[in-house]
Amino acid sequence: MPSSPSKTLIQRLVQAARFFSTPAIAWMVVVISVIVVSISEPMIPALLKPLLDHGFVQGKIELWLVPVALIGLFAIRGLCVFTSQVAIAKISNQGLLKLRTQIFEKLLHAHPDLFRQQSASALGNTLVYEVQTGASMMVQSLLSMARDTLTLLALVGYLLYLNWKLSLIVALLFPSVAWLIKALSKRLFVLSKNNQHATDELAYVVEENALAYREIRLYGGQDTQRHRFSILGNVLNRLAMKTVVASSAITPLTQLCAAIALSGVICVALLQSSQDGTTVGGFIAYVTAMLMLIAPIKHLSDVTGPLTRGLVAVERALELIESTPSETSGTFSKDRASGHISLENIRVQYNSNYQPTLFIHQLQINPGETLALVGPSGAGKTSLVNLLPRFIDPSFGHVSLDGVPISDWNLISLRSQFSMVSQNVIVLNDTLAKNVALGHVLDRERAIACLHAANLQSYVDQLALGIDTMVGHNASQLSGGQRQRLAIARALYKDAPILILDEATSALDNESERAVQEALHRLQAGGRTTIIIAHRLSTIEHADRIVVMQEGQIIETGKHTDLMQAQGTYASLFKLGSFNQSNSKNKPQSV
Question: Where does residue 52 rank: exposed (0-12), middle (13-18), buried (19+ CB within 10 A)?
Fold first, then answer.
């Protein structure tokens, strides 16, 4: 649902209300407390009238009644304010938890396009910070709005009771205040959205610099990054100042309208008192009640800013929930696939204005076959393997597993058939054992066996807590080879029938590569269908079939010896030095 400043405040509130509609008892406490506080507000000037008219005449009012009435009144009001704050906090926190849970659930099942369109910092900011700030501001603002609106009505009602003619002057105040709030709230909404976007861009620069600090320092990019940060920081600063100006203008303009109305009331009241003998107590009670109107009017004008900002934050979360498509899933499922994969007339095109990234007429991968994909960067190798577990969907054509289109497979069942070991291994901030058993019930003996098979046993033996050691943020203390072997242990634990190796050894030194290759040979055993993306001859020379790709298309297929004899692209790359035949086991080589 696209956000728009043309939406009314009520429409936005209704959208957000379903997350904060429970618990019902808390809402009952809030409603009762707010009503009591609001109704008791006119009792303060109401107590002044008899006190001024009769309190200074001896015997008219019992002296002890004055402190009892005042203390009792403020004790009741204080208790109601306290209970309403506690109840509204419960409503806010439970609504926040519900909203966050739904956003996280959406992230778990969102179409992969979401993660290509939005940065991790923007999604994290929405889920963790914006909804918390937005929910708190929105609920507190609504509580203040309800309390001050009822207080305003109660005071106006008391003023009508005291003097309805004077109250007509007060009535003229409300249209002007309503117009001011409506006009400035629209501007605040637009500024808040722009502020939100600028905050995301600034956070993304910080995220990039945190992730790429080595490259930035190595290439001396600090000045460039400092300039980027300065530009975006200044944009955010200007927007923040515009927001402050728009928000700050509401209160003085509203108070000016109130002052004009109050001046008129006092003048007319003095004129009336000289004509019909209005008592001092009645005049003071009316003026006091009139002055007390300023506070709720001020609060109602002040609440526009935080309410608008809160709604903008919550509305962004609602857009993420309601507008982000989830992955589509079929119904077919199978415990273990045989591993027969078929791609026919495949075209992958991310943007209609560009050439297809991938265009494959036909490719068959047989059960138990080891297929190597080679080719220059951008040839479409990774796009091809991402089609299989449906991380991307083809624009045209069909992909089948065991004769069933993958669109007809249940997604959970489909992805259970694949294990992947890539160059970029993601490790969660959890124990070593739970990282191995990712997504599965932890069997400690099995996890240890998989780590041993992945050549990580010597590393585990050095850890004081063994497999219960926390690996830290993305396992930054692990070397590249250890991370690769952890990914292999994870794949061994899953024991899927189809294995994808995406340049799993391209960034390793010789010793690490040997350890990883040994683990990979164990992983490939057992009749698995294996798809290898590699730039190293040592990784692909024993493949059953090599597929050479260029510009998204398959240009050659065959074994290494057959492709060399064919004297085609593969052989040309080999002869140009992309492979080093004499030392292929020890040096990185590229196709």
Answer: middle
Task: Tell me phi and psi for residue 530, to 5 degrees.
Answer: -125, 130
Of the candidates 407, 307, 394, 311, the one whose C-alpha atom is nearest the C-alpha of residue 359 is: 394
Calculate Rg over the CA atoms of the chain: 35
Residues 6+ apart with CB under 8 A from 581: 537, 574
Residue 168 CB coordination number (10 Å): 12
Question: Could you tell me the CA-to-CA distances from 130 to 18, 133, 307 in Å, in that order?
Answer: 18, 5, 13
Cβ distance 145 to 300 under 8 Å?
A: yes
Taking only the tens place, the pLDDT of each residue in 47-102 is 766 666 665 555 566 656 767 777 888 888 888 888 888 888 888 888 888 888 88
499 strand-pairing partners: 419, 530
Q: Mind giving me the DSSP string for 502-554?
A: ESTTTT--HHHHHHHHHHHHHHHTTT-EEEEE-S-HHHHTT-SEEEEEETTEE
- Residue range 368-380+417-583, CATH number: 3.40.50.300
* Domain extents in the chain: 9-323, 368-380+417-583
Cα separation, 163 vs 290, in Å, equals 11
Q: What is the CATH number of domain 9-323?
A: 1.20.1560.10
